[in-house]
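> call design_seq(struct)
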């Protein structure tokens, strides 16, 4: 029903995570109807430039345009603590709290035997290399509270057993501002297990 060029554009947007057919159409038509040619070219240039310049930080594996990234290079960060996360988006989420001052390690995924994702497919070996000098005292496992995320945290914690590091896991439980009656059974169990002294 659409011209081929429009349909191709819609299909590209539809291939992005969280974008369905209707959203992809709205984005495509917004670009075609409301953006000037210069704005569209600028957007395309930004995408191309980001793909060319962004790389993995050689230390933490986060996405960066510097080597090492700004977090790893900062003398204000606590280098004795590493927070292990699944994705660069997780780093952004934790940084937005302004509460964590250590370093990160981005796995770029989680173990998933059903999907063929093995330890060699994510950045576990790079984490082990960071612990070799003995400067790291704590590794915080901040993988997602999913079956794959939990399995990844358990697997890595076993690999870290020979190192002289404390391995901790972020707490899981009832979100602040929500009602207990709406929480599922697993969330309630995790909240009870993670209780703290007041």
């Amino acid at each position: 029903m659409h011209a081929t060029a429009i349909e191709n554009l819609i299909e590209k947007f539809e291939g992005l995570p969280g974008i369905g057919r209707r959203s992809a159409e709205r984005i495509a038509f917004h670009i075609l109807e409301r953006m000037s040619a210069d704005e569209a070219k600028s957007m395309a240039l930004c995408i191309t430039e980001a793909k060319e310049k962004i790389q993995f930080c050689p230390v933490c594996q986060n996405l960066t345009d510097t080597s090492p990234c700004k977090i790893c290079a900062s003398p204000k960060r606590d280098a004795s603590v590493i927070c292990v996360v699944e994705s660069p988006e997780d780093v952004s989420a934790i940084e937005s709290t302004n509460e964590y001052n250590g370093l990160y390690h981005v796995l770029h995924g989680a173990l998933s035997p059903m999907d063929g994702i093995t330890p060699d497919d994510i950045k576990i070996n790079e984490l082990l290399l960071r612990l070799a000098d003995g400067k790291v005292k704590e590794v915080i496992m901040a993988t997602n509270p999913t079956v794959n995320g939990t399995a990844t945290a358990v697997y890595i914690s076993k690999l870290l057993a020979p190192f002289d590091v404390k391995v901790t896991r972020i707490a899981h439980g009832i979100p602040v501002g929500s009602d207990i009656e709406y929480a599922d059974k697993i969330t309630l169990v995790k909240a009870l297990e993670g209780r703290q002294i007041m």
